[in-house]
Amino acid sequence: MELRRAAQVALARLPWVLFGAILHWSSSCQLVPHWRCSHQLVPPTRRHLRQLEPCSQPVVAPELEQALGVNGSVLLTMQAELVRRLTRSGTAWHWVGPLKPYYPTAVQDGYARLHQLLFDVKLLPLSSWGGRFDFERPLRSWLQQTSTVGRGGKQCQTSRSCMGGTLSRLGLNMFLLRHAPRVLENATCLGVDVATQYLPVIPGCARERMWSLKYEPDNPARPRKPRLDYRKRWMMLDLMSVSSPQRAGQAQAMFDLAIMQETFEHIRFPYQAAAALYQLLKPGGLVLWTAPFSTKFHLISGDYFRYTVDGARALFADAGFEIVGLHKLGDTALATGYDLGFGSADFTPAHLEAKLLQDILAPEGKAFEATASQEALYISSAVAARKPLNHTQRSRTGAALSMVRHGR
Question: Hey, what's the torsion of the CAs at 349, 311, 266, 251, to 10 degrees?
Answer without folding.
Answer: 100
